[in-house]
Amino acid sequence: MSRRIVSSGGSGDTPRNGEARRPRSISSSGALDSVRSGASDAPGVSDAPGSAPSSAPSADFRGVSGVSPDASGSGTGEAVAEAAGGGADTPRGMLPDDILVSSRSHQGFVDARSLDPDASVPERLDAPGDGGAGGMLLRPKVVSYPQRRKERTMAMAHRITRRVAVLMLVAVLVVTGGWVLFFSPVFRYDPAQTQLSGLNQWVDQDAVSRIISTDSGSSLFLVHSEKIRAELDDLVGVSDVTVRRTFPHGLTVSLTSAEPAAVLHVTSDDTLVPVTADGERLQTQSAPGAYNGIPRIDVSSADAATNDAAIAEAIKVMGGFTDTLSPRVTSTTAATRDSVTSTIDDGVTVLWGDSEDIDFKVSVVEKILALKDAGDASYASITNINVSSADSPIIK
């Protein structure tokens, strides 16, 4: 039966392309005879008893652990038997008759069965028969898996703690910001601090105050500025409304208030009702002289401004009067919608016709009255001016 010498797989024994190197075998009879005789060369593979010596390369057995030639040139026998005999400590994958060769040994071959099974890893690495010095370079890094799991658990706990802290901070900032913006007194709306411009006595001021005070006490961010603008624009005599927030507590409201185009003199109860050029009723005034300089028209009822087409046309005509002409008009009548007539303070009667081209008609009448007032002999005695056809005025 032949024995095998198995390499331990050092760096010089590593096969190319990752292929496993097959163990090299030599015949046990040739090897042992060579050891006993102290010869330096061993027979080749499968040298059976009685056969001719093989021409294969010789093997050096001087590095076999525990095997050394004695004085007579033969081995001790005991070490060889120990190396060849096998036993319970035989490495895995190694037959009992195999001899282990260590590539790290400085002496050549190391029998793994001769190693101390109780030696620690550092002791084995530093052993002279198993690598000698340089153990620090060969010593593997020892990893403590329980310690590693503990470190990973602590790292994960730290990450979770940081994330929870960030989320809590964001939540606190959001809640605090929301409270400051929408519920705290920092931006509380106070109607008393609202700046209002463009309002006159002809617009219902109580209605304006009520609309502006709708969201009193709320956050300025929650004030419905568009709703306020729409409600103000719906008031009679109000147009071109703008509403904007003025931080931290008020609004700035700018509007255009209409002036009365005429005053309806209701003959049935002797009351005065100011109306716009569209016939909308404005806020009545109780102060004396509040209607001075505003042209008047006699009507049977205040509803005539919208129900009577002739009165509605007369109001449009008076709406075209300038600030110079209006104070001089003492009365206006309208039998039909195209026969609107006014009386001037010096007794001159003006026939306007309808409200078409009223601005041009007013400028013609003002020019004629200016010539009459200047003492022009051609206009000194006029009593009637007909501008129903503005391009061809008639003077009598």
TrEMBL record:
<feature type="transmembrane region" description="Helical">
    <location>
        <begin position="164"/>
        <end position="187"/>
    </location>
</feature>
<dbReference type="InterPro" id="IPR005548">
    <property type="entry name" value="Cell_div_FtsQ/DivIB_C"/>
</dbReference>
<protein>
    <submittedName>
        <fullName>Cell division protein</fullName>
    </submittedName>
</protein>
<feature type="domain" description="POTRA">
    <location>
        <begin position="196"/>
        <end position="256"/>
    </location>
</feature>
<feature type="domain" description="Cell division protein FtsQ/DivIB C-terminal">
    <location>
        <begin position="272"/>
        <end position="372"/>
    </location>
</feature>
<feature type="compositionally biased region" description="Low complexity">
    <location>
        <begin position="71"/>
        <end position="83"/>
    </location>
</feature>
<dbReference type="InterPro" id="IPR013685">
    <property type="entry name" value="POTRA_FtsQ_type"/>
</dbReference>
<keyword id="KW-1133">Transmembrane helix</keyword>
<dbReference type="InterPro" id="IPR050487">
    <property type="entry name" value="FtsQ_DivIB"/>
</dbReference>
<keyword id="KW-0472">Membrane</keyword>
<dbReference type="Pfam" id="PF03799">
    <property type="entry name" value="FtsQ_DivIB_C"/>
</dbReference>
<feature type="compositionally biased region" description="Low complexity">
    <location>
        <begin position="42"/>
        <end position="60"/>
    </location>
</feature>
<dbReference type="Pfam" id="PF08478">
    <property type="entry name" value="POTRA_1"/>
</dbReference>
<keyword id="KW-1003">Cell membrane</keyword>
<keyword id="KW-0132">Cell division</keyword>
<feature type="region of interest" description="Disordered">
    <location>
        <begin position="1"/>
        <end position="98"/>
    </location>
</feature>
<keyword id="KW-0131">Cell cycle</keyword>
<dbReference type="GO" id="GO:0051301">
    <property type="term" value="P:cell division"/>
</dbReference>
<dbReference type="GO" id="GO:0005886">
    <property type="term" value="C:plasma membrane"/>
</dbReference>
<keyword id="KW-0812">Transmembrane</keyword>
